[in-house]
Amino acid sequence: MYWYCLTPLDILLLRDAKPFTPGERAWAKSIFPPNGHTLAGALRSLLGQSFNLTVIGPLFCYQKSLYFPRPLGFVGSNPLMPLNWHSSSHPLNAQALWDKTQPAPLTFTKSLSAEEQQQEEGNKFRSWLPSSVIKTYLETGNIEDDDWLLKYPGEDQPWQEESRPHNAIKPGTRQVKDSDGYFVENGIRLKQDWSLVIAVDSQTHQLLQSLSKPLSMRLGGEGHRVMVEYEPILDQQWQTLQTLSDRNFQQSGRAIAYLMTPGIFERGQGGISVCRSYPWEWKMAYNSGGNFVSMATERAVPISPRIRDSKEKKGSSIPAPQVFAAPPGTLYYLENPQGLFADSDKASKPLKQTRQLGYSQLLWVKYNLL
After folding, report:
1. Contact of 292 with 103, CB cutoff 8 Å
2. Can you give the pLDDT of all 370 residues of the chain as single tens digits?
3. Sign (positive or negative) of CA dihedral 329, 330, 331, 334
4. Pairing of the two strands 2-8 and 78-82
5. What is the pTM of this model?
């Protein structure tokens, strides 16, 4: 894979796929970071052709370093672990009762003193971690306390929102129109020295390299553009992480899967599609004899793509059914590593397409014995 920096030349407007009418929806919210459908569409528009491409991302880049979403299996800098993975001497093992048909509860691996808790509350933590920290995490299963602390501006959030009001005045007056006359858009501006980054496959890389430089690409609405620059140093960082992840995946025994992009785990049931926070093919370790033990996640991310409208107008698009994805940074705890069905030869075309668009990208973490 080949990594490219996408540096905005102005604010970005990345609305969701819902139909927008200013008179009905006075606020137009931007969805950021952009999803894989948006990035693939922008690349196809730039290259002027429709073809199957593979994308990884988006992530962020600062000072020539890849930045990844923080793993969610931590409270501050204190890691969480499934209750039944703790030693038998853990006090909750003898006292806690939990439903074995559900993921195991997560508990702290260590207790903090009152002084340590107060210090944690006063710290400013990173929401995005550099590749050097993620590399150590994959190798050891640990993130040092100092590696959580904010070191550079933007590590808590690399972007900020800007509200842009729009008014339409009645002809010959100074009054705003009653209908379709006023709405507000929330634009996205990246902080200084930060860029979005994505990885593309070999074919897409060759096509991008064949275009004249400097290269810019339209991303989002209102014609706003980003500079597109290939960064070989990011290739090396990614390859190092991918090698570590593959090595951890090959080892038997307990493992942690780190979800670095939104995870779409969708399956049809009773004529409707149902999304959930972990892959449907992963069975519970307790009552189903599977590998899945527990997870650390938060609220789902709505994905609102568009699809081509081949029936009405050729070249136009319509809103696709919305799906809900597990947020980046989600951690899955398994008794043994288990891949995704979407990566197998038996997977259907829609499942393979979600993986090609960068969703459900996992990195495997070495489990550290307590």
Report:
1. yes
2. 999 999 999 888 887 656 555 555 556 667 889 999 889 989 988 998 777 899 998 999 999 999 999 999 998 888 899 988 887 767 776 677 788 888 988 988 776 655 656 566 667 889 999 999 999 999 999 999 899 999 999 999 999 988 777 666 667 666 656 555 566 778 899 999 999 999 999 999 999 999 998 999 999 877 789 999 999 999 999 999 999 999 999 998 999 999 999 999 988 777 788 899 999 999 998 877 899 999 999 999 988 877 776 666 666 777 778 889 999 999 999 999 999 999 988 888 888 989 999 999 999 999 986 5
3. negative
4. unpaired
5. 0.89
Cis amide leading into 302 (omega within 30) = no
- Find where tokens 């927008």 sit: 20
Helix (H, G, I), strand (E, B) or coil at 135: helix
* Residue in the structure block whose two tokens are 């996205």: 188
Cβ atoms 160, 187 nearer than 8 A:
no
Instruction: Report angle CA 241, 244, 250 to the nearest 5 degrees.
Output: 140
> Concatenated DSSP letters for 47-77?
HTS-----EEEEEEEETTEEEEEPPSSEETT
Q: Which amino acid is at 227?
A: M
At residue 105, what is the residue type?
A: P
